[in-house]
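User: I'm writing a tutorial on reading structure tokens. Could you give me a worked example: one chain, its sequence, then its tokens, then a sentence or two explaining what the tokens reveal?
Assistant: Sure. Here is the example chain.
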Amino acid sequence: MKKRTGAMVILAIVSVVAGVVAIFDAIRYLDIIGTPLDFFVASWFGAALSGLVALIWFATAVQIWNGDPRGWLFMVSIAAIFLIMDIFSLLAGTPWELLSTSIIITVLALILGLLPSTKREFGQAAE
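And here are its predicted structure tokens:
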């Protein structure tokens, strides 16, 4: 097992927080608690996608915690996908205030993941 660095610990924590936010978003898409979110196709589709993304965030957190370079790749990929989902929700009419937490956490994950020092820790070539 690779020695855990500060970046790995922070990214794992951010991934878990993002997974929790995705679960909360799924619940709001289903209009169970809080103000409901809107999605283009149907709210249940947004909930299903958010639930899937939450599972991926949690699996990614485990990979990052273990120092697996694939965890870094999944984290960057899922952050980009979740950001796109949030943009679709904004375009569908969901107010910024309802998605701001999700967007901020996702952007934070992307920024931390794309730092040259973080990329080096996961064996990615710094460009």
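What the tokens reveal: The chain has one domain: 6-119. Residues 6-119 form one domain.
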